[in-house]
Amino acid sequence: MIRLDKLTKTYRGQPHPAVDQVSMDMPRGEIVVLVGPSGCGKTTTMELINRLIEPTSGRIFLDGEDVTNADPDALRRRIGYVIQQIGLFPHFTVAENIATVPKLLGWDKRRVGERVDELLDMVGLEPSEFRGRYPKQLSGGQRQRIGVARAMAADPPVMLMDEPFGAIDPITRDRLQNEFLRLQQQVQKTIVFVTHDIDEAIKLGDRIAILGERSQIAQFDTPAAILSNPASPYVEDFIGAGASLKRLHLSRVGDVGLDTGAPTARIDGDVAAARERLRSSGRAALLLLDADGRPQRWVDAGDLEGSDLSSAGEPVAAVVQAGATLSEALNEMLTSNAGVALVVDRSGGFQGLLDFETVMVATRSAPEFYRAAKVPS
Ligand SMILES: Nc1ncnc2c1ncn2[C@@H]1O[C@H](COP(=O)(O)OP(=O)(O)OP(=O)(O)O)[C@@H](O)[C@H]1O
Fold first, then answer.
1. Which family does it belong to (predicted)?
2. Nearest CA owner, ligand 1 atom 28
3. How far is the CA of 42 from the centre of ligand 1 (A)?
4. Which atom of ligand 1 is nearest to the CA of 215?
């Protein structure tokens, strides 16, 4: 979808190019993450792609068409651009901000209005509440979402995102990343995403380009391949410690073999039957579920001596959705001091158990094990 061919930019008065003969193919519908140290030319590369700056030499192709000399304004309507510090117009409402490009394109008022509401919905903000607000009446995370909505307004096939989640606290950032992946599953844009943060790159990228000085490509591959097979000591350094742990971000709980042999019983059910089920399972504990199959409490044989199950044993801990990453599951297990995670489906229904052993085996698995589709279910 995007092809860079020996793209070079030397800023006026500079002894060296900021981007030096970079060639890269970015496939349609994928998220390509550019990651590299400060000043290595990531932003310059993005600005070359949408012609905010002119290349010194080299060519840019978009969807097979040479756009190196295309009209920049027309080009930018095909490319949504989200940057960290922008750039919502402060005196425009949220709706007016999102409508900027559709208005430029001459859409009629009704179509623009519908599109604004649709996009607000898409980024998880209630249209009636947010449409009329001004940027200063939004939180940082909400502003980011409006930035994304604005870039998507005219449904451009390509989006450039320059550290869009950079200035956001880690918890909100994690949420926005998950929303972003979910959204991408629906819209399937070709996205070039810049970050400093290798963990963000691993989480979001279908492919990652690790850049060195002057945007030289140190490695361009899938996250799993980069983590398993770093091409050079530079890439290894960049990944940092804990490549195995980072690989836990790449697979989902639902993809590994769960233990489905745990005995279960209804919390409002018959105690004697529960006791018998635990005994015949040969296990140490039984899991009590509510009427909808959601895990409630763990009980052992001693707890099943009484007649009331509703307060027997211990409440469950470390409940994770099948769509969670192994890293999230491991974190839950460690923070709740539980030896196993209880894996549930979207409505909370019990699916099986995940233990440390299974997580450890997954960290050692071959790269093919890790799925390309990384969207939380
Ligand atoms: N307008 C300009 N004139 C001269 N030099 C520039 C200009 N813009 C950027 N540079 C230089 O080009 C190099 C690449 O800058 P660029 O902003 O692309 O890096 P970056 O990888 O995006 O950095 P960061 O991660 O810090 O945002 C830097 O050395 C920078 O100082």
1. Belongs to the ABC transporter superfamily.
2. 39
3. 8
4. 21
- Please tell me the distance between residue 251's alpha carbon and the centre of ligand 1 in angstroms: 35
Q: CA-CA distances (angstroms) from residue 99 to 72, 129, 205?
A: 20, 17, 29
- Nearest CA to 16 out of 28, 24, 8 is that of 8
Nearest atom in ligand 1 to 46's CA: 18
For residue 87, the CA-to-ligand 1 centroid distance in Å is: 19
The whole model's pTM is what?
Answer: 0.75
For residue 23, CA distances in Å to 64, 72, 99, 112, 192 come to 15, 21, 34, 38, 14
Q: How far apart are the first and last CA of the chain?
A: 27
The number of CA neighbours under 13 Å toward the Cβ of 350 is: 28
Structure tokens, 31: 């998220």
Of 43, 86, 211, 238, which is best to mutate to test ligand 1, by the most ligand atoms within 8 angstroms of its C-beta? Answer: 43
Contact (Cβ atoms closer than 8 angstroms) between residue 32 and residue 192: yes
**Any idea which residue has 């770093």 for tokens?**
230
- Which residues have any ligand 1 atom within 6 Å of their CB? 11, 14, 18, 36, 38-44, 196
Distance from Cα 256 to the centre of ligand 1, integer Å = 43
Q: Is 21 left (phi over 0), alpha (psi -120 to 50) or beta?
A: left
The confidence band for 136, taking pLDDT boundaries of 50, 70 and 90, is: very high
| Predicted ipTM of the assembly | 0.96
Q: Is the pLDDT of residue 168 over 70?
A: yes
Give the residue from 198, 187, 166, 181 showing the smallest Cα distance to 323. Answer: 181
Domains of the chain: 2-250 (3.40.50.300), 254-363 (3.10.580.10)
Percent of residues, the chain, with pLDDT higher than 70: 95
Ligand 1 centroid distance, CA of 1 (Å): 25
What's the order of all strands across the beta sheet hosting 340-344? Answer: 319-321, 340-344, 350-355
Determine the residue of 7, 35, 40 to mutate for testing ligand 1's pocket, defined as the one with the most ligand atoms within 8 A of the Cβ atom.
40
